[in-house]
Structure formats: C-alpha cells, structure tokens
Amino acid sequence: MAGNTKIEWTEKTWNPVTGCTKISDGCKNCYAEKMAKRLNAMGNPRYENGFEVTMHEDLLTVPLKWNKSAKIFVNSMSDLFHEDIPFEYIQRVFNTMNLANQHVFQILTKRSDILLKYAPHLNWSNNIWMGVTIESDKYKYRIDDLAQIPAKIKFISFEPLIERVNNPDLSKIDWAIIGGESGVGARPIIEEWVIHLKNVCDQYDTAFYFKQWGGKNKKKTGRELLGQTWDAYPVV
Q1: What is residue 104's three-state secondary structure?
Q2: pTM of the complete model
C-alpha cells in the first residue's frame, strides 16, 4: 500500500485510495486491476472490495513519517481524480503533500477534466508534480488541460503507448515518460512512435524518459532505445 517500488521513474508508492474504472483505450489491460484481483484472492484486507474505489483514511499521513526524501508515486493503484473520490478527500491528500515537503509527489490521471475543475481549489506546493496519461493520438486534449494546471512540474506518461501520437504540443510540459504495454496480451509499440516523441521532446526541451519496450516479457525486451537508456528528469 505504501513503500518501495520497482517502477523505474519513481522510488516509492503511496495509495490512500485503491480501485478505479476503465475510461479509455489504455485501460484495457490495466496492471492495477490484475494486481488488485490477485491481492483480493490472497485475502489482503485492503482489497476486500476488489478493484472498487476504496479510500484508506489511515494511510493519509504515511508520507509524513518518511524522513528520507523520496520521489513518491501517488495512487499507483487508482486515479486520484476519479469521479467517485470526494473533493474533500482529495484536499486531504494534498494537505499531506503540502506538509511533507521533503518529498516529491508524482500524480498521474486520465481524468484531466476533473483535474481542471478542481485545480484552482487545491494548494499546488512546488513538490507536487502533476501528469496525465496519453496512450494514443485521440487523447491529446489531456495535454491542453494539464497545461492550465498551476503545478511547478507538469509531465506526460505516454504509457502504454498503443498508437503514434502526432506532434503533441509540449511547450508547457517539463517531462515525458514513454513505455510500451507489458504482460499477457500486450499491444505492440513501434520504434518510430518512440523516436518521434523523442524528437518532439528535443524540440521543446522536455526531459525524455524511456521506461520500457514492454511485451509479454519486458525484462527480455529491455529499455534501450538507439543503443542507450534515456533517464532524464525535469530540472527543478
């Protein structure tokens, strides 16, 4: 629920909410849903509701107890801006992030419309990085929504990248993470799509992070692009 993670671009995860519902193409093979079902079958009490949206109030202040600074992915098992999460609860999550200023908090959402609605009423301290997921060209509108958010660092997760995203406007975006889908039934990623996004990042001076090629065995396919790994982070 909260602790170290193997996700390449962060260091810890914190899940004051678990559970979600599918809203777009990238959700088809949701890793969090599969993990939640597995944990439910194992009798984990946090997942007694399976993948239904569930708030864990006892976890709200956990990052305040972590003294060593870390990059923390918020709600790796949910979406903080899910329509079933009350605004007041989101405010409480933000309050913890505001207080725990020794950490960097990384939030991702596919619900950029709700993010845009709530953003003016939240406290965007500089340690909160806000991102949206763009899995294919038809979801580029999320970039426009994100560009209006008063977060110091704004980022895009192009993962799972299941289609070419044509010339996204990254003029107000600080960081881009690109990755292919992994696991059974993973949809293919094409090298040209990745190189195109790298070129766009170079054009806008956006930090470029290539996470993985993915596939059924992501360890076998690895992380190299053009003969090297790409692990850039935004300049804070």
Answers
A1: strand
A2: 0.96
